[in-house]
Amino acid sequence: MKAVKIVFILSITCGWLSSAAQGIENPEEIKSLFSKENEIKGFGGVDINITDVYQERSLLLGAYGGAIINKHVMFGLAGYGISTENQFQGESGTMLNIEGGYGGLYLGGILFPNEVVHLTIPVLFGAGAFHIVDKQYFPTSFDKEYVLESTAFFVVKPSAQLEVNITQFLRVGVGATYRLIKGSDLRDISDDDLTSWGGTFSIRLGRF
């Protein structure tokens, strides 16, 4: 399983480097991302991720935005949060909930962007926080919830999506994603419990 994860991440990285290289006309000329010669356009979108969080099927909603450089390189910010009721049984038999999300730097490559169907390879590098919540901790109070534990963590989330040009300003995509979490510090939940594969559906608007 670890070998599959490594191959997936390496393929994402190689694809991103390949897409960035498509814009180079003269290999001996030194170029930079932000220069007068580059074409820079803005974009924004939403992501719907179906994945597992601590063995519970979950829906994570996200938003992202930034700039597209030379039609091949995406650069921006993104954030995601758990939107479903993620429950598990605690040691005392009480049903507890996992809440939280993550966000960070959003980088990506686009292969063959002028084709109707093409490949996008976004990668998120960032951090986040999860909370373990007992929603019935104060049963006689109006506000019944109590946060039992909280943790911060680092996250890397590479994705690969097949994207379709619906119009000149609208693109939709479907694909696979892998969320790698490190540095969490929950008593009974490990990094591996929070790390998972998933499926993603995205809608992107912008000047392409």
TrEMBL record:
<keyword id="KW-0732">Signal</keyword>
<feature type="signal peptide">
    <location>
        <begin position="1"/>
        <end position="20"/>
    </location>
</feature>
<protein>
    <recommendedName>
        <fullName>Outer membrane protein beta-barrel domain-containing protein</fullName>
    </recommendedName>
</protein>
